[in-house]
Amino acid sequence: MAHSPDTGLVKDESVLVTEAKAGSYAAFEELVNRYEKKIYRLGLNLTGNPEDAEDVLQETFLKAFEHLPTFREDSRFYTWIVRIAINQGLMKLRKRRSSKEVQIEDSSNDDGDIIPREFADWRPNPEQELERTELEAILQNAANSLPMTFRTVFFLRDVEGLSTEETAEMLNLSEGAVKARLFRARLRLREELSKTLKIKKDS
Amino acid sequence: MNCKNAIQQITGYLDGNLDEDLKRTLEVHLNGCHHCKAVFDTTRKTVDLYCDGKLFPLPSKVRERLHDALRAKCEAQSK
Predict the structure, then answer these.
(1) How far apart are CA B51 and CA B70, in angstroms?
(2) B3-78 — its CATH code?
(3) Cβ A54–B65 below 8 Å, yes or no?
(4) Closest approach of chain B CAs to the CA of A138, in angstroms?
(5) How far apart are CA A92 and CA A86, in angstroms?
(6) A128 and A83 in one domain?
């Protein structure tokens, strides 16, 4: 993260936005540096593949650059670009769905209660025991098994740290629907991950 | 509190949104129920794993292409 040369302090996001709006490319680039990793990861989580994630990343920041003059600053800059990224990610998925597979809508049986079936403890530190790429593949497979709306709610709330209210607004859902989906998404992901991360009794 | 009721409170509990009475009742249940305790612990772990900043790093080539595209756009606009 870049520091302003005179004070050594990290610049406030709103200061960078003001400078970028006034035409400072350096300020805009600093905003990109701050959030590019998170937007890439979000793109990867939403679309499930690296090519689409790169497209989401590029399109998000190109659009942000283009539309910066119209950004009204009634939300955080980060929330604003997450919204752009979500739209780009959903567009990617729709395109892929029309060309073939990919289930975006909720499947019909998602209104029932979530009943946990896996009760085993997990290995204590899968992030240390497994290769990074191996763990990433496990996490992605689990995420890909969720209906799109569950996945989106989970990543916005739990990974991007948006509030229930921000998530609801962004996805045109009620706050109640966000809470219900977050509950289901967490439990379903846990159930999926349990299959590979649980301690197996016979081993 | 039974297991079904306990599971219903998982989101509120993990997010720290339960009132004190409910939280205490739930914790009594969790202390006596290994199944629910495992579900709560592994759900917390699920969220932690997806939040691990070391996973899904941005490849340097992808980052380079992003910054090249942005600079090109900036230059095109200033012409």
Answers:
(1) 28
(2) 1.10.10
(3) yes
(4) 11
(5) 10
(6) no
Q: Tell me which residue range forms the domain holding A23.
A: 10-99
Question: With pLDDT > 70 as the criterion, what percentage of chain A qualifies?
Answer: 86
ipTM of the modeled complex: 0.90
Q: What is the pLDDT of residues B51-79, one digit of tens each?
A: 998 999 999 999 999 999 999 998 888 77
Pick the closest to residue A159 from A147, A169, A167, A148 (CA basis). A167
Instruction: Answer yes or no: are the C-beta atoms of A78 and A86 closer than 8 Å.
Output: no
Q: Which amino acid is at B41?
A: D
How many contacts does A have with B, using Cβ atoms within 8 A? 108
* Structure confidence by residue, pLDDT tens digits, A98-113: 655 444 444 444 545 6
Tell me whether residues A190 and B35 touch, CB distance under 8 A: no
Q: Counting runs of H as helices and runs of E as strands, what totals does chain B give?
A: 5, 0
Could you give phi then psi for residue A117, rounded to 5 degrees? Answer: -115, -20
Q: At residue A7, what is the residue type?
A: T
Question: Does residue A64 share a domain with residue A30?
Answer: yes
Nearest CA in chain A to B51: A159
- Note the residue count of chain B: 79
What SS3 state is found at A123?
coil
* Residue A119 or residue B78, greater confidence: A119
Q: Check whether residue A48 and residue A15 sit in a common domain.
A: yes
Q: How far apart are CA B56 and CA B71, in angstroms?
A: 25
Residue B31's Cβ-count burial label (10 Å; 0-12, 13-18, 19+) is: exposed
CA distance to A50, A65, A133, B45, B73, per residue, from B55 (Å): 13, 27, 8, 15, 30
> What is the rounded average pLDDT of the residues A74-88?
93
Q: Which of A32, A120, A186 sits opposite B47 (nearest CB)?
A: A186
Q: Are A182 and A157 in contact (CB under 8 A)?
A: yes
